[in-house]
Amino acid sequence: MASLFKKKTVDDIIKEQNRELRGTQRAISRDRAALEKQEKQLELEIKKMAKTGNKEACKVLAKQLVQLRKQKNRTYAVSSKVTSMSTQTKVMNSQMKMAGAMSATAKTMQAVNKKMDPQKTLQTMQNFQKENMKMEMTEEMINDTLDDIFDASDEEEETQDIVNQVLDEIGIEISGKMAKAPSAARGLPSASASTAGTISDEEIERQLKALGVD
């Protein structure tokens, strides 16, 4: 019972109209089929009368055939009109739905604009930009400091490697010279031999220069 007193929506009305239009279209198709059947019968009657030589009957039947064909053509025109009305109804329904969606969107936008404070939003964006710039500057400073530390450490390590290499080579030279010195079993070395077994500062500097170390 409640459905009988329920208020019809636009969609309900359009559905009913479409059902009526489809019913009208089927009725027109049935009428056209009946007219086509009568058309064929008249054509047969005209041929039959023509064979018997009854010209008057042929004229009457021919007039009826002309009227019948005109009526059949009218059914095509009416059918096209019904189809056009159905299409227009669908277009109007679509436009109404679009209008409803736009109305809902406009209401939502109005509600958002009421809640939104332009000045506060602008201030928030400016604060965000400011803090972001600070973060970028801090990150850049940290990266520069780390680069300096690692670069200095690499240079120091490389320098130490070169010094160790030079000292190792000098040590090898010193060991070679010490190996040639007379041992204690052969007697105590003289002052001149002791002096010869000692590498002078000039000798070390010469070897450094030969290795390319200033």
TrEMBL record:
Residues 25-55 form a coiled coil. Keywords: Coiled coil. Signal peptide: none annotated. This is Charged multivesicular body protein 2B. Gene3D superfamilies: 6.10.140.1230. InterPro entries: Snf7_fam. Belongs to the SNF7 family. One of its GO terms (biological process) is vacuolar transport. Residues 181-200 are annotated as: Disordered.
